[in-house]
Amino acid sequence: MLKCHQVDLHIHSCLSPCADLMMSPKRIVRAAIAKQLDMIALCDHNSAENIEATMAVARNTRLTVLPGMEVTSSEEVHVCGIFRDADATLTLQELVYRELAPGENDAALFGDQIIVNEFDEVEGYNRRLLIGATNLSVEEVVAEIHRLGGLAIACHVDRQAYSIIEQLGFIPKDLQLDALEISAATTFDQAVKRIPQLTEYSVVSSSDAHSLDEIGKIATSLNIEKLDFDELRQALRRENGRSISLRG
Ligand SMILES: [Zn+2]
Ligand SMILES: [Zn+2]
């Protein structure tokens, strides 16, 4: 039976240098449940090292956590890849690490990149320059996400920074995006006035939460049968009666 579920498909953990240090797996899961969310995707910048811990925390709760990653392309476009399982995300991570700009993270400048376990204990620090861009073009990022069976969503297309429209000036017609994401700063009706191409795509609204209070600030309603990756994909494609809806 189809039912309406609330999802927030773009949340950062304390692994992202720009995210709050309080964004640990247990706190993220607790905050998402408190916000009445049914499913979230964890999408850290160019890394997935807190994915398994966050999925483990959610395992016996009412919340489903999908593994994901927010990849920065060579043109500085942010694209979220969302996957069926952690293994696919970790395979993407291997490629992203090979293609990431060289250099070490300057924690004093960009923030710490903390790897934590499912008990919210610090396991270590990621030293890579996760805030940097990869050598992968947008086309390559989308192709790799699809090769690994994932969904590719162009992030915060209404924003000035790191959005495909700002960085490229347009959305390439042949780019096989599964959805466009709009931020909490806009409604669909407002966004479509500026970006008419929104009507040609499935559109999700996500919080891009970097702190606990931002989780679920905006969400997407999915009309789906159960909470999993395949149902999300069907909703984005509007298959088998599944659908998405956004506020105004
Ligand atoms: Zn972003
Ligand atoms: Zn983000």
Describe this structure in words.
By secondary structure, this protein is of the alpha/beta class. It has helices at 25-34, 51-58, 86-99, 107-110, 138-147, 164-168, 188-194, 229-237; strands at residues 3-11, 39-45, 64-72, 78-82, 114-116, 122-125, 151-154, 179-182, 203-205, 220-224, 243-245. The strands form two sheets. Strands 9-8-7-4-3-2-1-10-11 form a nine-stranded mixed sheet, with helices on both faces. A two-stranded antiparallel ribbon has the order 5-6. Strand 3 and strand 4 form a beta hairpin. Helix 1 (25-34) packs across helix 2 (51-58). The protein starts with a strand and ends with a strand. The mean pLDDT is 96. The structure holds zinc ion (ZN) (2 copies).
Topology:
Blueprint: E1 3-11, H1 25-34, E2 39-45, H2 51-58, E3 64-72, E4 78-82, H3 86-99, H4 107-110, E5 114-116, E6 122-125, H5 138-147, E7 151-154, H6 164-168, E8 179-182, H7 188-194, E9 203-205, E10 220-224, H8 229-237, E11 243-245
Parallel strand pairs: 1-2, 2-3, 7-8, 8-9
Antiparallel strand pairs: 1-10, 3-4, 4-7, 5-6, 10-11
Helix pairs in contact: 1-2
The protein binds zinc ion (ZN) (2 copies).
Index terms:
single chain, 248 residues, alpha/beta, TIM Barrel, 9-stranded mixed β-sheet, two-stranded antiparallel ribbon, 8 helices, 11 strands, binds zinc ion
